[in-house]
Amino acid sequence: MEFRYLGNSGFKVSEITFGNWLTHGSQVENDVASQCVRAALDAGISTFDTADVYANTAAETVLGEALKGERRESIEIFTKVFGATGPKGKNDLGLSRKHIMESINGSLGRLQTDYVDLYQAHRYDFETPLEETMQAFADIVRQGKALYIGVSEWSADQLRAGHALSKELGFQLISNQPQYSMLWRVIEAEVVPASEELGVSQIVWSPMAQGVLSGKYLPGQPAPEGSRATDQKGGAKMIERWMRDDVLAGVQELKPIAEEAGLSMPQLAVAWVLQNPNVSSAIIGASRPEQIADSVAAAGVKLEPEVLKKIDDAIGSLAERDPEQTKSPAKREH
Q: What is the CATH number of the domain that holds 81?
């Protein structure tokens, strides 16, 4: 495993982060989830990402149990706040001071830790003044409950506004967590340049485009049984945008490129996002422990310019690049 600095800070994270969004607390049993965390640790992963909204807080509980007994200083734990949790009452979502201050305490209890390394605004909240949100984060940092602050899926303008306030309030906004893959490149035009200017780096999710870039889905053929595309608990809905024959055919053109580079398809997908110098870490998930070792082998891989060009030629116009696709939920109905 190799490690990279997160933003303009002295804080290092593993190039591969283990995330438990679609699995722990919902799609796999807790003992298997713990085995996945153990496999991640054994593979050299030290960074773990979750959120209070995942499985309505259950994912944090599973991760806390799985990491119990690990030397706290040797691992990095990330979580997030924004989405509706608990009974989903009027103050159980968003980035109000009330929800943030109550949520950090809930997350710390479930994760069985005194602090998180990175606390992230899971989306931008159009209903709460940004000053209120950033002041709450500043207080959490001063209380020692979070060491650093990040965001997720914020636009370039939102990043600039949040970063300016963080400097005023005396804490570091060091990261953004966007979706990014060969097929989803919406951060490249605006978010990445703004982040480079601000000293913010990306922790990217879905580098394998919900598993489509693994190459297991074939054009004109039904999805394999047991795959994410057949999972009606949430996986199928997330992946459906890529389940078009033109996309699946383009992905098949990546197979010889991966073989020539000596990589599996998942390794090629993860290695590709790590070629972007503004990316500090790629988040992978797993429903089985054996899935982890393959993805982890992408750490430290350097793809030559000619390989990157072949990938661009294969994917071409199939990739989504519209920066307007970086967006948070609109104002809520009252």
A: 3.20.20.100
Give the mean pLDDT of 170-177: 96
pLDDT tens-place string over residues 177-209: 999 999 999 999 999 999 999 999 999 999 999
Closest by CA position to 39, among listed 296, 307, 322 = 296
Q: How many domains does the chain have?
A: 1
Query: Phi and psi of 249, rounded to 5°?
Result: -70, -40
Confidence (pTM): 0.93
Three-state secondary-structure class, residue 151: strand
Cβ distance 120 to 152 under 8 Å? yes
Taking a C-beta distance cutoff of 8 angstroms, is the pair 286, 23 a contact? yes
Instruction: Kindly provide the residue ranges of all beta strands, DSSP E only, lying in 142-200, ordered along the sequence.
Output: 146-151, 173-176
Among candidate residues 5, 54, 115, 119, the one labeled active-site is 54
Report CA-CA distances (Å) from 331 to 16, 126, 127, 128, 219: 34, 6, 6, 10, 38
Write b or e for each residue in 265-303: b if 16 or more Cβ atoms lie within 10 A of its Cβ, otherwise e: bbbbbbbbbbebebbbbbbbbbbebebbebbbbbbebeb
148 is catalytic: no
> Is residue 330 in some structural domain?
no
What would you measure as the largest C-alpha separation in the chain, in angstroms?
A: 56
Q: Which of 153, 104, 68 is nearest to 326 (CA)?
A: 153
What range does the domain containing 59 cover?
3-325
- Under DSSP, is residue 201 helix (H, G, I), strand (E, B) or coil? strand
Q: Do 183 and 320 meet the contact criterion of CB atoms below 8 Å apart? A: yes
SS3 174: strand
Structural domain includes residue 332: no
Quote the CA–CA distance of 96 and 252 in Å, as a whole number.
45
269 is a domain residue: yes
Residue 321 lies in a domain: yes
Condensed to tens digits (0 to 9), the pLDDT of residues 291-315 reads: 898 889 999 999 999 999 999 999 9
